[in-house]
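Design request, C-alpha cells follow.
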C-alpha cells in the first residue's frame, strides 16, 4: 500500500491499463485455444445453422419482398444479393453493406425511404453470418476488396452507389482503395469503424466477452445494447439475428486495419460521411475532424444524438441526406 501511494498517477493509470490488456490477452488465448482449425468462416453446428436461419428469416420478414435473389460466385465464396425495386429503376442503384454479424436485414428500417429514391440492393458480407458462403480463406484487405469487386461485376447493374454501415463502411472504403476501377459511383459512410480512428479501448474490452459463443447470451445482448445507445434489444428481430450470428458462426477474417489518411484523400469517387455523435465505436470528435479534413465539410453530416445504430434510429434523415448528396453529384 505504501509503494502504491508513491507511484505517480500517470504510472498508476498505465499499470491499470497494462493489467487490463493482459486480461484481454488471457481471454483471447483461451478463446483461440478452443477454436477449430477451419480456415474459412462457418456455422459451428447443425443446430446453430437452424437457429440462425430462423432468426434471419424473422428479420427478413420486416423487409419488402425482394424482386430478385442472386448468388454470385467469387474466388472466395458465394455472395448472396437481394434486389428491391425502387421508385426510379433507371437511376444508378444503391447497394447497402451491413455491419459485422448483422446481415442484410439490418437495413429493414431504411428500405421504405431509400426505395422512394431508386432500386436498392442488399448483400450479406462474405465470411460473416448470413446467407453468403465463404469457401476459400480471406487473409488480407486486398482479398476483402477482391470478393466485393467480383460481386459488383457479377450483378446486372453497371455501377452502384455504395452505402456502408459500420464495418460495411470500412468495406466500401477498402474496396475503392484496393480496386479503384470497381464499378462504384459514390460512397456513403454510415458511422464506419476503422476509417477515422481506432476502436476505443473500452469498447474493445467490452466486445471480448460478447465474442465468446459459450458465454451467456445476456453478455452479447448487453454489448449490442451498449453500441445502440442503451436501447433494449430483447425480442427485436434484427437484434435476435445479430446475437444468433455471434453465438453460432465462427469468423475467420483478419481484423480490418485502420485506413491511413493519405489513402482516404486518394479516393476518387464522391464521398458522403455521416457520423453518429454518440457512437462508442470511435471517438466522434476526432472522426468529425478527420472526415472534414479529408472529404471537405460540405460532405460531412453529424447526427449529434445518434448512436452507432444510426441507420435504425434516423432512417428518414439518412435517406434525405443520401438523396441530397446524389442530386448534388448529379447521379
Amino acid at each position: 500500500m505504501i509503494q502504491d501511494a508513491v507511484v505517480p498517477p500517470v504510472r498508476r493509470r498505465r499499470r491499470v491499463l497494462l493489467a487490463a490488456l493482459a486480461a484481454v490477452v488471457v481471454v483471447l488465448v483461451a478463446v483461440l485455444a478452443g477454436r477449430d482449425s477451419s480456415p474459412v468462416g462457418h456455422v459451428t453446428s447443425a443446430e446453430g445453422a437452424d437457429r440462425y436461419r430462423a432468426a434471419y428469416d424473422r428479420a427478413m420478414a420486416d423487409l419488402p419482398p425482394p424482386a430478385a435473389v442472386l448468388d454470385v460466385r467469387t474466388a472466395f465464396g458465394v455472395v448472396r444479393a437481394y434486389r428491391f425495386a425502387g421508385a426510379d429503376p433507371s437511376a444508378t442503384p444503391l447497394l447497402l453493406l451491413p455491419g459485422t454479424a448483422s446481415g442484410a436485414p439490418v437495413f429493414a428500417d431504411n428500405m421504405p425511404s431509400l426505395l422512394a429514391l431508386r432500386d436498392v440492393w442488399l448483400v450479406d458480407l462474405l465470411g460473416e453470418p448470413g446467407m453468403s458462403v465463404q469457401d476459400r480463406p480471406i487473409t488480407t484487405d486486398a482479398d476483402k476488396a477482391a470478393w466485393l469487386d467480383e460481386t459488383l461485376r457479377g450483378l446486372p447493374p453497371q455501377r452502384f452507389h455504395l452505402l456502408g454501415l459500420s464495418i460495411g463502411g470500412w468495406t466500401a472504403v477498402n474496396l475503392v482503395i484496393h480496386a479503384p476501377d470497381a464499378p462504384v459511383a459514390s460512397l456513403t459512410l454510415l458511422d464506419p469503424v476503422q476509417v477515422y480512428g481506432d476502436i476505443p479501448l473500452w469498447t474493445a474490452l467490452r466486445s471480448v466477452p460478447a465474442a465468446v459463443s459459450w458465454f451467456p447470451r445476456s453478455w452479447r445482448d448487453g454489448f449490442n445494447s451498449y453500441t445502440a445507445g442503451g436501447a433494449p434489444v430483447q425480442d427485436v428481430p434484427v437484434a435476435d439475428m445479430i446475437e444468433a450470428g455471434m453465438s453460432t458462426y465462427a469468423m475467420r477474417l483478419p481484423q480490418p486495419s485502420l485506413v491511413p489518411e493519405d489513402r482516404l484523400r486518394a479516393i476518387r469517387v464522391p464521398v458522403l460521411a455521416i457520423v453518429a455523435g454518440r457512437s462508442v465505436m470511435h471517438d466522434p470528435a476526432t472522426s468529425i475532424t478527420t472526415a472534414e479534413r479529408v472529404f471537405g465539410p460540405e460532405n460531412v453530416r453529424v447526427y449529434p444524438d445518434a448512436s452507432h445504430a444510426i441507420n435504425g434510429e434516423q432512417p428518414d434523415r439518412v435517406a434525405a441526406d443520401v438523396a441530397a448528396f446524389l442530386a448534388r453529384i448529379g447521379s
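Comment from the thread starter after seeing the answer: thanks! The two ends are 66 Å apart (CA to CA).
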